Amino acid sequence: MGTKFPKIILLSFFLIPILTLQPTFAPAALITDVRSWSATDHTRVVIDLTEPVQYESTSQENPPQFQLELKGVYFYTPKRELEVKDPFLSTISLTDLGDGRVRIIFQQKKTLNTNVFLLKPYQDKPHRLVIDLIDVSLEKKEIEERQKQKEIRPKGTKIVVIDPGHGGEDPGAIGPKKTMEKDIVLKVGAKLLQLLNRDKEIQAFLTRKGDYFIPLGGRSKMATDYGADLFISLHTDASFNPQARGSSVYCLSLAGATDQAAKILADKENLSNFLGGVTSKPITNGKDKVEPILVDLAQNDTMRESFVFAETVLQDLKAVNLLKYSSYRQANFIVLRAPRIPSVLIEMAYITNKEDERLLKSSDFQEKIAKALAVSIKKYFRP
Ligand SMILES: [Zn+2]
């Protein structure tokens, strides 16, 4: 997307500092927003900027504190303090030091590892400076706890991993009434979790329990860690055509997509990492590189299992909502790439359609979808 400023304004923006002999380092970037997302093992702080900035960081142990100094930046107020209500941070304070320098202090509640990186503008997102403050020991403990599940589960118990798509910086699709996909899928995911865990032979887990982002590869890695017997990724569809409606079900394709629409949809869902912001270092199991799947016989069996489950879901969804397609479609969804775990992605309805958006927002419809999925899951495990 091109800049909205006419060339002449841009030119004067660069010339004025020179003509008026401003300090040698003329600030160019403006901080337009600061927000934080609290995950189970880290806090992500995101700073919106009109331009990329340079930064230096320092940290101290006692009390634990992380400090960033941004250079070449304006802040619209001399000082601002943000309260973070999570187990990792207490406050984030920003102070304009003048001369195009802004100091940001992150007051920590415990010792944390940090990872700072810049993200380039993407779709409607501006330049972003991302600061991840990670409780590494907690992150490790969570992975170990997931890996323990397959050993401690009672014999015959099936493990289901439910993945509410998007989250945090990535809102997913947005409806005409500003309903966000990330919120709807989290609600349906929680309802489905509750329904499944009432069954003594099923143990269900969520990839994300709140409004934060997990890289796509991290989600399927979680399913692998849990030793899942089934993985379900929940989404809501979107279209430029406001008339488009209905539910659809997708499986992974190791070759091409079954049709152009499925390919476009997979491409769109796969962009989640760019919006959500993927770090260069692992976070919450973040395995971001798409590695080719080894096509072995076991994987073929897994694919067949996914198809069987997808067919069952279509049968049960039909009673709850219009179906966009009467059969499942296939495309290359990164999130469905957990090796040897039957995995299905469900587009519950079109959030961009007025009527579907109204349905998606209603607790009654969310419950109906969750119930239909729970029925499908039980049928799949106990045919
Ligand atoms: Zn989605």
Task: Reconstruct the topology from this structure.
Layout: H1 7-19, E1 29-38, E2 42-49, E3 54-60, E4 65-71, E5 73-74, E6 79-83, E7 89-98, E8 101-108, E9 113-119, E10 127-134, H2 136-152, E11 158-164, H3 181-197, E12 202-206, H4 216-226, E13 230-237, E14 248-252, H5 260-270, H6 272-276, H7 297-317, E15 329-331, E16 343-350, H8 354-361, H9 363-381
Parallel strand pairs: 1-5, 11-12, 11-13, 13-16, 14-15
Antiparallel strand pairs: 1-2, 2-10, 3-4, 4-8, 6-7, 7-8, 9-10, 14-16
Give a verbal description of the structure.
The structure is a single chain. The chain is an alpha/beta fold. It has two domains: 17-136, Immunoglobulin-like, CATH 2.60.40; 147-381, 3-Layer(aba) Sandwich (Aminopeptidase). The protein is 32% helix and 28% strand. It contains nine helices and 16 strands. It has helices at 7-19, 136-152, 181-197, 216-226, 260-270, 272-276, 297-317, 354-361, 363-381, and strands at residues 29-38, 42-49, 54-60, 65-71, 73-74, 79-83, 89-98, 101-108, 113-119, 127-134, 158-164, 202-206, 230-237, 248-252, 329-331, 343-350. The strands form three sheets. Strands 12-11-13-16-14-15 form a six-stranded mixed beta sheet, with helices on both faces. A five-stranded mixed beta sheet has the order 5-1-2-10-9, with no helix packed on it. Strand 7 (89-98) and strand 8 form a beta hairpin. Helix 2 (136-152) packs across helix 4 (216-226), helix 3 crosses helix 9 and helix 7 crosses helix 9 (363-381). It is globular, with a radius of gyration of 23 Å.
